[in-house]
Write a structure and sequence with these properties.
With 61 residues, the protein is mainly alpha-helical. The chain has a domain of 38 residues: Erythroid Transcription Factor GATA-1, Chain A. The chain has two helices and no strands. The radius of gyration is 23 Å and the shape is rod-shaped. The chain starts with 22 loop residues before the first helix and ends with a helix. The structure holds zinc ion. Zinc ion binds next to loops.
């Protein structure tokens, strides 16, 4: 594992904070993950299904 660089700032990796150079950089990476998850839209599947069923029943009637 020697010779690796911090993926956040490119400085030399510190074994204690692998694969980062410091605790701060590990938090930066963590925040990127959290922001990435927040960007994923969560559509209300139940409401979608309900409206589709209503449309079908209306067509049937
Ligand atoms: Zn770093």
């Amino acid at each position: 594992m020697a010779g690796m660089n911090c993926p956040i700032c490119g400085k030399k990796m510190v074994e204690q904070f692998t694969p980062f150079c410091s605790k701060r950089c590990s938090y930066v990476d963590l925040n990127r993950w959290l922001k990435g998850e927040y960007r994923i839209p969560g559509p209300p599947l139940d409401r979608d299904e309900e409206s589709m069923n209503n449309g079908e029943s209306q067509l049937g009637n």
